[in-house]
Amino acid sequence: MFVNRRDVQIQWGDCDPANIVYYPRYFAMFDDSTSIMFEAAGFSKQDIIHKYGLVGIPMVDTRAKFHIPSTHGDWIRIESRIESFKRSSFEVVHNVFKGDALAIEAFETRVLVGKHPDDPAKLKSAPMPPEIIERFMRG
C-alpha cells in the first residue's frame, strides 16, 4: 500500500484556550493530508477532477480516536493511506504520531462524484479509475 508521511508543527491558531489542538483543526489537517497523499502518488485533485469529468471528491463519513493531545509548538507526523476501494468510494486512514506514540487514528470515506448524465443539476457517483487503484495498491 502507498503511504504518505508528512510532518506538521502545531501552530498557535490550532489550539484552544487550554493550549491543546481544537479537534476541528485536525480534520482540516486530515483533509489536506488526503490531497497531499494523492499529489504524492501522482494524481493532483485538480487533475483528477478535470481528467475524469468529476465535480469533486467529497467526504461522506469521518471519525477519529484521540489518544494523546498536542499543544502549540509540538511536531506531529501524519501517515495517510487508502485502506480500501469500492466502486466509487474509498476509505482513508490517517495515523498521527507524536514521537513514536500513536496520538490519533482518523478515518474518512470519500466518493468520486460527477454530474448526473440525465440532469446536470444533480450529482452522481463515478467509478474509481483503475490506474488510481493500481497506484495506491502497488505502493
TrEMBL record:
Per UniProt, which keywords does this protein have? Hydrolase
**Pfam families for this protein:** 4HBT_2 (PF13279)
Query: Is Signal there in the keyword field?
Result: no
GO MF, one annotated term? fatty acyl-CoA hydrolase activity
Superkingdom of origin: Bacteria
Query: SUPFAM superfamilies, from UniProt?
Result: Thioesterase/thiol ester dehydrase-isomerase
Q: Which InterPro entries match?
A: 4-hydroxybenzoyl-CoA_TE, HotDog_dom_sf
Q: Does the keyword Hydrolase apply?
A: yes
Gene3D superfamilies tied to this protein:
Hotdog Thioesterase
Q: Which named protein is this?
A: 4-hydroxybenzoyl-CoA thioesterase
Species classification: Bacteria, Pseudomonadati, Pseudomonadota, Alphaproteobacteria, Hyphomicrobiales
